[in-house]
Amino acid sequence: xxxxxxxxxxxxxxxxxxxxxxxLHIFTVSIWLGAVVxxxxxxxxxxxxxxxxxxxxxxxxxxxxxxxxxxxxITILVGLYYGFLTNYGFIRNRWxxxxxxxxxxxxxxxxxxxxxxxxxxxxxxxxxxxxxxxxDATVPLILLAFQTIVLLIITIxxxxxxxLRKKTARN
Length: 171
Ligand code: HEM
Prior knowledge:
- By secondary structure, this protein is mostly helical.
- It has helices at about 15-45, 50-85, 95-125, 140-160.
- The chain has one domain (about 15-160).
- Protoporphyrin IX containing FE binds next to helix 1, helix 2, helix 3 and helix 4.
């Protein structure tokens, strides 16, 4: 006789706790997405005005360090909470594993964006020439657009929660 072993289930936090955590999660990820979109809009709209460009190169690092990084950190902590203390886990659901992978891709992108902004500020300070959309400003703009798209993909994954299972002969 073969014994069937049920998957080990963790004790789930209460429904109220899960709802509270989810509210915090949606709140922080909205701010994160908003911060990236605002940074993109600020940079794209500042390329024709030197004063605005200088202000923008100060505002974007401020937005990143004071708004984006804390919300990203809270998102990671909430992710760890879901992983360690709930039945969602880290690899039990593929949509969650994919979220982690995408999140890990976003981290270096954030750091590179700040670096590329510093890079385009130097020639401006030296010669007063504004970066152009299809010149020096292309890299930070593409990085910001990429982050927006990845965050949108994560949002869609979260809402649809696809199984992402390999199809077998049986299904
Ligand atoms: C790797 C880090 C993350 C983990 C582990 C994670 C995990 C989860 C889990 C388990 C839920 C379901 C909560 C519930 O129904 O009680 C959820 C919901 C959600 N997550 Fe995340 N998340 C992460 C990052 C993100 C990011 C970066 C975004 C968006 C930019 C995001 C957007 C959402 C949204 C919109 C929901 C609500 C979906 C719905 O209920 O329809 N998450 N997340």
